[in-house]
Write a structure and sequence with these properties.
The strands form eight sheets. The protein has a five-stranded mixed beta sheet with strand order 18-19-17-16-20, covered by helices on one side. The two termini are 40 Å apart. The chain is an alpha+beta fold. It has 34 helices and 25 strands. The relative contact order is 0.07. The protein is elongated and about 125 Å long.
């Protein structure tokens, strides 16, 4: 790539003039608004709070925390470029940098590196990590310190310190001895001696001649240290092969018993390359399998419906109040196991569903004294939505949540157990990783799944690890693998491939969606799109995400089964629901019968206990007969009719009320039967009257005890009316979904960027404006100093002429600042002026102005 092509890809390194910038601040000052906006978008921590001027922006961009955050967001090749700059001279030319990346052969030796390097350098410049023209590239000093190798923090390049750094602890005499042994003339001081040794090690021809005389054993030692680590251990009496290297400075001592391979020597051995292997291009995402898109969409839609049913089943199980909240917060291990058994899923999957309901705002703690988990009022609203919209709410909550359910069961940094719904599960990279994994899947041909290892490799190239953390323990790697399994559970993917509604969830615009048409009789699946459109790489804003969720719901809706209004009654006291049921039918059937099995069709079983449950809920036998007749496509079996009538005939024959508890019955023979039954001993019953028994037990205990004996008692009120035992849903007070925990400030929107740029430009104008000399000129950076009379006179003159002034101002908190204003009116001890720094009209008390100065004539 030619320098002209590079200049089109890179932000301008200098201003309109020919002078090169002397600092990062000057480099930023030469940028246009588009380039500064790109910097603030890439590094949003720089805009919070808004810097007062470009000098403060440059200072903040060079702080350790900000630079470290910027380095962590570089891709692998951009980071390798920064590492090469850190081990190169300061400043370094573009050609020298290319040599460090591609080796002595230059672009011909590695054309891919030569092609990718301008883009990597443009990224570093855009993010204010590198500044200067191509002939004097400078890495920000803080970045150089973070990337410079040391024994405590070895460089990923495997290079050691320079000759100058490694010889800092050697005596001048020892350095002169090394020169003599290496065949160089002695010098008059240590500085020139180190320069002569460095010149030798950087001269390819002389180094080839020197190493040509080395013993083979010595060359083997150098080859072991060539690619790092560059440090080695020696004894007090080194072997001859080591002594030959030490005498010529090819190995230098850094501490007793430790030697290091100087950086210049290592670069010669590597043919000038800073890295053993450069990675200019991201690894490709490999396809695992390919399916018809219609099959993928249908599979994903089926799993999406299962996801809705699972969340409903979870919250129905907790409808009257769920498990207690642990003192430290979260769900106990025992309660998670019970939930997993109730949902018939493994515990990690149960933790995912619980966390998903929590992230969607459908589940929360009730805040009572004995705190429990329960559904929120939002759950009742969510249940009334169409199925596709309910799914889009869940999918959006999952995509944007920072909580990572995969951590449940692990340990935190203090070796404390991480529990579902508990603290410590938030991981700020989670939304970005989920979005990126789905985006990579969207880049494959439709219906194609990816191998997990290739996805992980791609993510590790885009956000490489720094440090010695094992790849398997990398949080982003684990998040990526969890994303693949969670997306399949939720129905975002089907058979590992991204579905059409999953693709829409990432931000495909509704107007761009292709039409759907039947692919067969009664088939409503969408037609395969031959060319999938790219989706945004960045996470969506809240408005964009809402539009994407609505689009995804519209695509999913035709794929979901229509709710049925009927069941199939069978003679073995079961009912088969051949598909999802309408909610009133499902709710009533859930009371009247017990679920025996689930799947494509749900099987319900009628038992005496289930029928009694319906009668306790206030239904009469005639109501149950009418309900079954209305909703069954088959005749009501005679055994089921007999079961309902038999339970109804005995239901309420016994009445239980509160005395502490009593049993009332008009049939004294039945009471005699109860007293004679040995199983009633635990109830401690005694006869008060021919038709009344008293018990030393609570009414609920008495009811359960009599039902266990085979009777069908009914509870009654103090007035003698039958109590309807309808379950009361327990709800929390209104709760908002948990807020994501971002890693640092969010990316600024266009409005904030525009306002920040105006403020920074105006503040920079105030701090750099050239002032006319005053009676008491201020030093550079100090506030102007004038008397009150001079200040008032200058202000009044500026009102008449319309000129702008440079003022020093101290606010009520005592904070001093410099501003450029255009006075409009002076009266009553106040000046009203247009403040260029704030870009608005403001009023300032004259007594708070330290001084005023006119701007030079050539200032705007």
């Amino acid at each position: 790539m030619t320098p002209e092509e590079r200049s089109r890809e890179e932000p301008p390194a200098t201003g309109s003039g020919t002078a090169a910038p002397r600092s990062l601040a000057e480099s930023l000052r030469a940028r246009d608004d588009a380039s500064l906006s790109a910097l603030l978008r890439a590094r949003p921590d720089l805009v919070t709070p808004v810097p007062t001027d470009l000098t403060q922006l440059a200072t903040r961009a060079a702080t350790r925390a900000s630079v470290l955050r910027a380095l962590e967001r570089l891709d692998r090749f951009a980071l390798q470029t920064a590492e090469a700059l850190a081990v190169g001279p300061d400043p370094v030319s573009y050609d020298e940098l290319l040599g460090l990346m591609a080796g002595d052969g230059g672009p011909e030796a590695d054309p891919m590196v030569a092609e990718a390097l301008p883009r990597a350098l443009a990224t570093l410049r855009e993010r204010a990590l590198v500044w200067g023209a191509d002939d004097r590239l400078r890495l920000v000093r803080t970045a150089r310190e973070l990337l410079t190798p040391s024994p405590q923090h070895p460089s990923p390049t495997g290079l050691g310190p320079t000759v100058a750094e490694a010889t800092a602890g050697l005596s001048p005499g020892r350095i002169q001895e090394i020169l003599t042994t290496a065949g160089l003339p002695t010098t008059h001081d240590a500085v020139s001696a180190v320069e002569a040794l460095t010149a030798l090690f950087t001269d390819r021809a002389r180094m080839v001649a020197l190493l040509g005389t080395a013993p083979a054993e010595s060359l083997e030692v150098l080859s072991r240290l060539e690619w790092g680590p560059p440090y080695g251990q020696i004894t007090a009496d080194p072997a001859p092969r080591l002594r030959w290297l030490l005498d010529r400075g090819l190995l230098l001592p850094t501490a007793p018993g430790t030697v290091v391979l100087p950086r210049e020597v290592a670069l010669h051995l590597r043919s000038g390359r800073a890295h053993r292997r450069t990675e200019p291009l991201p690894p490709a995402v490999e396809a695992a399998a390919t399916h018809r898109p219609q099959v993928v969409d249908a599979t994903a839609a089926a799993q999406a419906y299962t996801a809705l049913a699972t969340v409903e089943e979870l919250l129905k199980d907790w409808d009257e109040g769920g498990p207690s909240v642990l003192r430290a917060g979260g769900l106990s291990v025992r309660d998670l196991k019970r939930t997993a058994v109730a949902l018939d899923v493994p515990e990690p999957v149960a933790a995912f569903w619980v966390e998903l309901a929590y992230a969607a705002g459908l589940l929360a703690s009730d805040g009572e004294v004995e705190e429990r988990y329960a559904a929120t009022p939002a759950y009742d609203e969510w249940r009334e939505l169409p199925a596709a919209e309910r799914w889009s709410r869940l999918a959006t909550a999952w995509l944007t949540a920072t909580r990572a359910p995969g951590l449940v069961g692990g340990r935190d940094a203090k070796d404390r157990a991480l529990s579902a719904l508990g603290p410590g599960l938030d991981r700020s990279p989670a939304p970005e990783v989920r979005h990126r994994v789905l985006t990579l899947l969207a880049g494959l041909p439709e219906g194609t799944s990816a191998t997990p290892d290739s996805l992980v490799s791609r993510l590790r190239w885009e956000r490489p690890l720094r440090g010695a953390q094992p790849a398997a323990d990398d949080l982003r790697t684990r998040l990526a693998r969890w994303t693949l399994s969670e997306a399949e559970l939720l129905g975002v993917t089907g058979r590992g491939a991204l579905s059409a509604h999953g693709r829409a969830l990432l931000g495909e615009h509704p107007e761009h969606a292709q039409a759907t048409e039947p692919t067969g009789p009664g088939d409503k699946l969408p037609v395969h799109r031959q060319h999938p459109r790219p989706v945004p790489r960045r996470p969506l804003t809240a408005t964009e995400q809402a539009a994407a969720a609505s689009h995804a719901a519209r695509l999913l809706a035709p794929l979901l089964p229509e709710p049925l209004d009927h069941v199939l009654l069978q003679a073995d006291l079961t009912a088969v629901a051949p598909g999802p049921l309408e909610r009133p039918l499902a709710d009533m059937l859930g009371v009247l019968a017990d679920v025996e099995s689930k799947g494509g069709a749900t099987v319900y079983r009628f038992t005496p206990a289930s029928v009694r449950r319906a009668l306790d809920a206030g239904r009469a036998a005639s109501d149950l007969h009418a309900f079954l007749a209305a909703h069954s496509r088959t005749p009501v079996p005679q055994p089921l009719t007999y079961l309902i009538d038999d339970v109804a005939r005995r239901h309420g024959h016994l009445r239980v009320g509160a005395a502490s508890a009593y049993v009332r019955c008009d049939d004294d023979a039945l009471l005699n039967e109860i007293l004679a039954d040995k199983r009633s001993a635990a109830l401690r019953l005694r006869r008060l009257a021919p038709t009344v028994l008293a018990a030393q037990a609570e009414p609920a205990t008495l009811l359960e005890g009599l039902r266990a004996m085979g009777f069908a008692p009914a509870a009654e009120s103090a007035e003698g009316d039958v109590l309807i035992a309808r379950a009361h849903a327990h709800r929390t007070p209104p709760r908002t979904p948990p807020e994501p925990v971002p890693d640092g400030p969010p990316a600024p929107d266009a409005t904030l960027l525009a306002a920040a740029l105006r403020a920074i430009r105006a503040g920079d104008l105030a701090s750099t404006a050239v002032r006319k000399p005053t009676r008491a000129p201020a030093a550079d950076g100090d506030l102007p100093r004038t008397t009150s009379a001079e200040t008032l006179a200058t202000m009044q003159a500026a009102v008449l002429t319309g000129d702008s002034l440079w003022i020093g101002y101290v606010n009520a908190e005592g904070t001093a600042s410099q501003r450029v204003i255009a006075p409009i009116r002076v009266e009553g001890g106040f000046v009203t002026a247009y403040d260029h720094t704030a870009d608005e009209v403001r009023t300032y008390p004259l007594h708070r102005l330290t001084g005023v100065a006119e701007l030079a004539d050539d200032q705007p």
